[in-house]
Amino acid sequence: MDTLHNEPFLSYSDSEKSGEGYISKEFDIYQNGSLIISRVRTTHEGLFTAIIFYSKTEDPVYYYVRVKTIVKPLDPFPEIDNCSLQLAICLQPFRKTLRLTCVVRNARPEVPLGWKVVSAFEKRNMSSHLSVIRNNTVFTSFATVSQHSLSNFSLLSLFVCETNSVPGVYDKHESLVLVQNDTHFNVKALEPIAIYIQQHSPLKLNCSKNDILWLVWERRYGTGDEFQPLLSAVLLDSTVVDKYDGGYELYEEGTLVVKDAATKNEGTYKCVGSDGIKDTIVIYEVVVYGK
């Protein structure tokens, strides 16, 4: 029964189905009385009442079902502004204008968002600016953290945008952001470790002897060039790796590997790693001989 109009839109009696809902094919009914909605729309959200008459002499039994509809966002996980949806980790250099904004677009119901900073011991809630825009029957939610909130952390910090779990809206409820803040660190003062490797030999560069939970490997091709990212990784419950250059692999404990070293692999390599408590940074100068 439609409680809004208080009149039956679907009936089932003596194996016969009837009612406006059945004729329009919007609804159907099983023999046990279960309702079928042929194609769910947001207009179906509400309270439905089923009235079952077990006999002519007994009072009918009422069953109430609350229907809530969901609309899945097009994106498979929360979107981070200025980050590629093709990558699992959003890598951002720290800058004075940096703001991290997490967005869930055109979802139903409204999806609550929040930012957390991760360490080896915990995920800690961060102060975020939250807002929601409604567009007809769907909602777009925003959560933003400012540059000031991001500047007080380590050399390489892991931030997570999490959605409060709304069943059915997302399979993946979080997005990862690595922020590299070396504004107070003089990389030039760090003495590179010289590595001489024979051509066609495997090249292996260790990131740290300490436990690290996330890292970024970078490479500089010439002394005057900027470091360019090769890959980033988060090594928590499951390992997540993004590669920006297909010629490199990541092995256990953050080791960077080239299986068949060539002259094109010469250059300066830098690894920055952290667990949210302690940071590590190492630089290698790689020379390939036997050309």
UniProtKB/TrEMBL annotation:
InterPro entries in the record: Ig-like_dom_sf, Ig-like_fold
Name the UniProt record assigns to this protein: Ig-like domain-containing protein
